[in-house]
């Protein structure tokens, strides 16, 4: 379940970065239609990424706080419909209103993005809602883990790794976008640098807290490495035996 959510999140983040790198180029900025297309696609995949972050926060909360076994098969399907569908609805409405003039080229920043009013209504409002939801999920999980500290059935190592995962979850899901909200006025440049820095390290956070700190992932990696070493040793041994047999035949 968590691996499927992580795959969808990584796909949306990867496409977002690709669109930003390929779309914010002079050839796209000069053509009005291309600029609007880049802005709309960037708007969609940013919202989709945030939606998948909210799904992961919800999943962690359900697993940690609530007994979550009965509806697991339908959870990922409903999450996919919501996470990929709701941003499409928002972008479609934004395109339909005002004959797509909501997506413009911002001259001073040389980027294709939303104009001021649609930016607040179609982007900041959903982002703010998702951030509030993630913070609520975060505190629910933290309260649950604190309540479980006296549970002797929960090992100390497992509890420590859960806290590390939740700590990384909070930074991944919310802190970078909190900086985006404060990137206005005289302090805009500082918060923009912080936003870019934290956003750039999202992939690192995902790798650390969803791969390195997960025991089952480490076990899979170790088993693959051990398997490759065994295969290599077996191949060397067969080569040695075959060369030894050839030498013996020549001596005979």
Automatic annotation (TrEMBL):
Keywords linked to the UniProt accession: Membrane, Transmembrane, Transmembrane helix
Membrane topology designation: Multi-pass membrane protein
Domain G-protein coupled receptors family 2 profile: from-to ranges: 1-214
GO terms assigned for molecular function: G protein-coupled receptor activity
TM annotation in the entry: 5-24, 44-68, 80-99, 119-143, 163-184, 190-213
Keyword set includes Membrane: yes
Major site of localization recorded for this protein: membrane
Pfam families xrefs: 7tm_2 (PF00002)
Protein name: Adhesion G-protein coupled receptor G2-like isoform X2
Keyword Protein biosynthesis listed: no
Gene expressing this chain: LOC115214957
């Amino acid at each position: 379940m968590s691996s499927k959510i992580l795959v969808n999140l990584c796909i949306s983040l990867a496409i977002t970065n690709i669109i930003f790198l390929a779309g914010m180029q002079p050839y796209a900025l000069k053509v009005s239609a291309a600029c609007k297309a880049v802005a709309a696609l960037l708007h969609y995949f940013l919202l989709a990424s945030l939606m998948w972050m909210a799904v992961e926060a919800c999943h962690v909360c359900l697993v940690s706080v609530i007994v979550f076994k009965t509806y697991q098969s339908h959870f990922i399907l409903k999450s996919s419909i919501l996470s990929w569908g709701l941003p499409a609805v928002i972008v479609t409405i934004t395109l339909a209103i005002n004959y797509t003039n909501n997506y413009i080229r911002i001259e001073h920043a040389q980027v294709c993005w939303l104009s001021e009013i649609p930016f607040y209504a179609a982007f900041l409002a959903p982002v703010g809602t998702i951030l509030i939801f993630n913070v609520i999920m975060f505190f629910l999980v933290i309260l649950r883990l604190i309540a479980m500290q006296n549970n002797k059935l929960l090992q100390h190592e497992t509890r420590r790794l859960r806290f590390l995962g939740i700590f990384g979850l909070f930074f991944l899901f919310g802190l970078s976008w909190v900086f985006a909200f404060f990137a206005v006025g005289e302090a805009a440049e500082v918060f923009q640098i912080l936003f870019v820095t934290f956003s750039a390290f999202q992939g690192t956070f995902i790798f650390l807290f969803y791969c390195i700190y997960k025991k089952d992932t480490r076990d899979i990696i170790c088993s693959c490495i051990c398997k490759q070493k065994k295969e290599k040793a077996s191949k060397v041994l067969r080569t040695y035996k075959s060369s030894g047999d050839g030498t013996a035949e020549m001596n005979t």
